[in-house]
Every structure is written in C-alpha cells, then in structure tokens.
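Pair request: fold both.
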Amino acid sequence: MKFACACLAAALASCRCAAAEDGIMVGAFIPPVAAYPAQYRDSILNFDAVTGKRHTHTMFFCAFDYNGIGAYPYLCDQIREAGKVPVVTWQPGIEGRPDPAFSFDSFLRGRHDAGILNMARQCRGFGDPIVMRFAHEMNISSSPAWPGHWWNGGDTEKFKAMWRYVRRKFDEDGAGNVLWAWSPNYMGSAEGLDTFSNYNNLYPGDDVVEIVGVSGLNYGNHPTAGPRMPVTVQWLFIPILRDLMAG
C-alpha cells in the first residue's frame, strides 16, 4: 500500500498533482451557499484570508443518485477560478445514506453504469485535475460502502472489485484527469475485530489509487460520536498513518 497524503475528514484533502513546490498542501471543505452560487469563489478565497493559509483543494459531497457533478454546475468552475483543485466525495447510496440498491453486486452487475459514465464524462469535460474520493470511510457502519451491511455480506473482496469496476469505467471513457483517493476512517475496526471493518482488507490496489487519505473528526465530549472525549490531531492520525506508511 502506498501513502500519498492525509485528509482530515470533510475538512482536509490533498492531491500530489497540484504541488508546484515542496511542502504540505492543505485543502478545505467549504459548504456551498445554494442561495448565492455565484459567490462560492469569493467564499473560498475569503477562507484563505481568514485562516492565513493558501488552500490548494476544495471538497464537496456528491451522492450517487445525483446528476454527477452536473448537480452542482457552478462548483467545479468556481473552485478552479479560485485556483484550487476540486475534490469530489462520491457516495454510493441514496443521498449519501446506505441503501441495498447500491450493493457491491449491483455495481458489478452493471446496474449503475449509466451514473458512472455520466460522472466520468462530466469529469472528463471539466478537463483539469479532479480528485475522486470514492466510497470513503468504507470501514465504518455509517458508510454506504461498508461491507458489513447485510446486502454486502461482509465481502471485502467485492468492495475492492466494485472500486476497480468503477475506476475501469472511468479509464475506458478517457477520464484521465481524475485522480482516485482511497480514504478510510481512522478507526482500524469500527465494529470490533471483524475483518470487513479493517481498512487493511479494503485497499483496492496501487494501480487504481493515486492518493491515500484518512478521515477523522474531533467530536469532543459528544455522548455518542467519536471516542467521547476531546482529542488531538496526533491522537487521531498518528497510529493509522504509521500503519499505512509501513505497508
């Protein structure tokens, strides 16, 4: 397994292709304001000014049942106008929620080919680099792509086959400007010691992954989310980053 970058869940994303100089690239998830789409570029640049950092990437979420990036016709263009690389978190479910209609088998049987090709063609038409954060956090039960859902049968091999199937469709369509980001949750086994929640069993292969990411959130003292205590970036990420780098 190769290691390319670390992403802070829904907040940080990195892409090797955008690096013009040595150093750490920092990205951000900046929620679009639907009522004022033309101001999204300004929101991105204002975020740079407020934080005092030049962010290289801007991420947004896109559910599989939407019209690809065409569901947000202004986002990628305004991200590009702001001098950033778009990062698309593409979730294989209904509005980003787990659904048996999006089982691994349903992908492998071609039931979602139209949606896959639609997204591939839109990304290819964009022309510039796009990072595709597909089926992220696949090792936790809230993810639509978790193998532990009853409709996926705990089959880690089929998760990898699904990933490779979707990637192959993009490649066949000529969407070579898309870089694929594999991004598990920092928890090594979200549901105990089962094999289908261990991210080490869910890596689809170096030949279909350009970027390795990590998701992790500090929920503080939230009674049900996260470790139920405030944590540091080091606490969240050092263990999994060491593990990924050693592979």
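--- second member of the pair ---
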Amino acid sequence: MLQIRGTSSFLDGFNLGAKNSLASDIEILKSRSLAEKVARNLRLDWQVANASPNLKFEILGFSFASKNSSCNVILTGSDSYEVKDRDGKRLGKGKAGTLMHGQNITLMLDKLEGKTGDSFTISSVPLHLAGRSLQKGLHVGEIGNGAGILGLTFSDTDPVKARDVVNAFAQVYREQSVDFKTQEAAKTLTFIEKQMQIRKDSLENSEEALRKYRLESGLRILGPEAGVLVEKIVELEHQKAAVHTKQCRWSKRCLVYSANS
C-alpha cells in the first residue's frame, strides 16, 4: 500500500481558487488516461507466452503494426533470432542488444540466454485493454477521517508486479499534478496581467479627464475615483508578485522531481 497526501489548488492561500477535494484526486487516480500511461510506462501493452523451458530474455522494446497481433520469436544462435508471424512467414531477424526493424515490426531483446530452436510468442495488447486491466485491480481510498491522505493498493498474484504498479501510479499522478499546477499558475498570471492592463487603461483615462478638468477648473486635489483605481492597481501588483513567487517555487519542485526521477 502507498500513501499520497491529497493535493490542493495552486491558488490556495491567495483566495484565487478553491481546494481540490480528495474525491477529485481519487477520480484522477482511477481515470482511464492515468491507467494507460502507467500501462505504457510498465510495458504492459504486450505479453509473452509459450516460452521454452530455461529460455531467458528481456524485452526492451516492441511494436507490431499488423492485423495478426502475435508473432513467434525463434533463436537461431546464442545471441541471434528470427521472427515469424502466425502463418510461419519470416518478418525479420536480429541480435540481442540491437533494435531489429522487420516487416511491420520492431523488437529489441537483451540478456538472451537459450539454445538454438528455443522460442516464445509475443502478442500486442491494445493500450486501452491494458489500462482497463490496471483499473480493475486498483483500489484507492482515504485513510482515516479527514486526514487528507489517500491509500493505494493493487490486487495481483505477483507481489512484485503489484508493488511496481502502485509505484508507477504514484509517479504518474505526481508528474500530472505538477504539470497541472504549473499550467494553472501560468493561466492565473495571464489573467491578472490582463486585469492590470484594464485597470491601468481606466486609470490613464481618469487621469486624462482629471487633467482636463484641472485645466478648466483649476482643481488641484486628486478625485476619490482616481484614488480607488490607484489602490486597485497596487493590489493587483501584489497579487501578481505573490503568484509569480508561487510559480517559481513549483518550477523548482518540478526540476527537483525530474532530477530525482
């Protein structure tokens, strides 16, 4: 089980936005898009079957653009192999540690250990199906009452896979959260800058009208409306500075997270 503290909006503390509820965080963690990203990161969009006894290998990359979603890999030497479709047609041949480009297929095998004639079948799994499978095994819920912490668990007969899936969900969730907060900050700065420009234009118009009025009437005291506009400009400047500071902090967090990933 993994614990994740519930997120809050980037704008909390500035009275410019409302907190995201834990329910929203749970929906994000259970979403199809997040599950598909996890499936892609864990390379669950393919599966291996019918491997010969004592055959060892690691698949570093695979794609197969064909109606036949599966193919057979047969060892032709200690570090070489050929790939055939289900009808026995050769699609390509390659060597361990080197990316093979064949007919509608790319494959990269590593740490290949076996004897000539050993084989296995590799099949493509549609990403939406791989993601759906992860969604079915994932359980997300709040720990305690009002603690603001979510617990993630994944049900699987393989404890190593369960651990890797939970960690992958947490990683993708954090990355998505950082991206969202950064985008939210940028949009808020743009909004505030537009509001400041509107206020400044209004102030300039008031000052120009006041200047003309002074020339006509000899008035030397700043009117109350212009004073209110000045106060609003100052307030917006403070809000912009505060949001800019918060954005810089999140940018630093994003850099640190990327460096530690």
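Observation on the second member. Residues 6-19, 252-261 have pLDDT under 50 and may be disordered.
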